[in-house]
Amino acid sequence: MKKTIFINPNEILLAMCSNENENTARSGPFYDETEVLNFLSGIDDVERIIRIELSTNRWEDISEEIAEEYLDQSSWMLDEESDIPPFVEYSDAYKAFKKDLEDQKIDDEIYGTYESSTVSDSLMYFKRGVFNMTHSPLSLISQKYGFSEQEFRKTIVKTCISHNFSDEEFAAFISVANTYGLNPLTKEIYALPKRGGGIIPVVSIDGWIKIIKSNPKFDGMTFQDQLDKYGNLIAIKCAIRLKEIKDPIEVTEYLNECKQKTDPWQKYPARMLRHKAVIQCARYTFGFSGIYDEDEAERINQSSPSQRQPVSEEMIMEIQSLMHETQTDETKVLSFANVRNITDLSLQEGQTVLRLLQKKREKHSSQEQQPVEIVYDYDETYSQDSIHHQEQRAV
């Protein structure tokens, strides 16, 4: 008996199962080849299914949902006559996958993950005797474009992320790109630094058009310009039609609300406003979230307060040591940084103070290496070595 199970890569399933050898067996998460093969070959029935959504860490018991809606029975069982478990047939991911097979005229047995332009290229499956699972969005997207994970990461860092970033930020960026099927290599999606830390995934207009057209419900898009009595552009209305829905979803964007001072807006206001109308209409129609255009990224940074990172204890000790060494009055340092206490310095302010004190120390050190010349003036003696006079004059 052959069994195949399809799983959305953003989800994992925990199955409470029973078989001849054990009263209750727990199968999943399906990250181990042996566990998957054992599940497919040795489990005859499944009593409870728990679905976990990885992106939100939410979970739900879907056993009753499956039983009541699809099977009309109290427990869910693998259909021995079918390769595909019942709950899979009703998922949007599987429907999209089947549509791809029909479009590509692939009627052969499934022995690998088929790549396509729609959501199905993210589909994973398991088949008895065959294990073909990639564990991360980076692995999926790297394989899709013919790179190793290391090569793909290196390429993306050079071309799409123009600042320092953490592993978590890189993983988040790749996850967003993979979720929407966007290619970072062609700048369909790229990352801008977020003020205060983090990144903002920015999608180009080509990327927006791609994810709109790849939606199986998309059935066309139209635009309508609104002009004033002098023929000047006031607004643009975008309308997106969906299959099996009578009325289109319409969004109007106004030039005076959207226009920026950047070169593209100054040179091509109509084109930029049309892009803005497309993006906003797509959001209303398909519920896209977590992605932005470049104008929105700039506004996010303008409205986001910068995070003030405090100075470390080690840096405070180094600053105090240099103040003593260079005979710098602490009140001057506090006045310069506009703080009441040394401990109130931010990390950036501390770095600036430290750099200035280090330069002062270097200057004093170079002066001390020069020969000392005694200067007699008004019967008073001034020397670089004399620190008790009101003035010092280096000659």
Question: Top keywords for this entry?
Answer:
five-stranded antiparallel sheet; disordered C terminus; 15 strands; alpha+beta; disordered N terminus; elongated; 395 residues
Alpha carbon gyration radius:
32 Å
Q: What is the domain total for the residues? A: 4
Kindly state the percentage of residues in helix.
Answer: 25-40%
- Beta-sheet strand percentage? 15-25%
How does the major sheet shape up? 5 strands, antiparallel
List the helices and strands and how they pair.
Elements: E1 4-7, E2 11-18, E3 25-27, H1 33-42, E4 45-53, E5 58-61, H2 63-71, E6 76-77, H3 86-89, H4 92-104, E7 124-127, E8 130-132, H5 137-144, H6 149-159, H7 167-179, E9 189-193, E10 199-203, H8 205-213, E11 218-227, E12 233-242, E13 249-254, H9 255-258, H10 263-267, H11 269-286, H12 294-303, H13 313-325, H14 330-337, H15 347-368, E14 375-377, E15 380-382
Helix pairs in contact: 5-6, 5-7, 8-11, 13-15
In words, what does this structure look like?
The protein has 395 residues and is of the alpha+beta class. The protein has 4 domains: 4-132, no CATH class; 143-203, no CATH class; 209-303; 313-368, no CATH class. The chain has helices at 33-42, 63-71, 86-89, 92-104, 137-144, 149-159, 167-179, 205-213, 255-258, 263-267, 269-286, 294-303, 313-325, 330-337, 347-368, and strands at 4-7, 11-18, 25-27, 45-53, 58-61, 76-77, 124-127, 130-132, 189-193, 199-203, 218-227, 233-242, 249-254, 375-377, 380-382. It is elongated. The N and C termini lie far apart (98 Å).
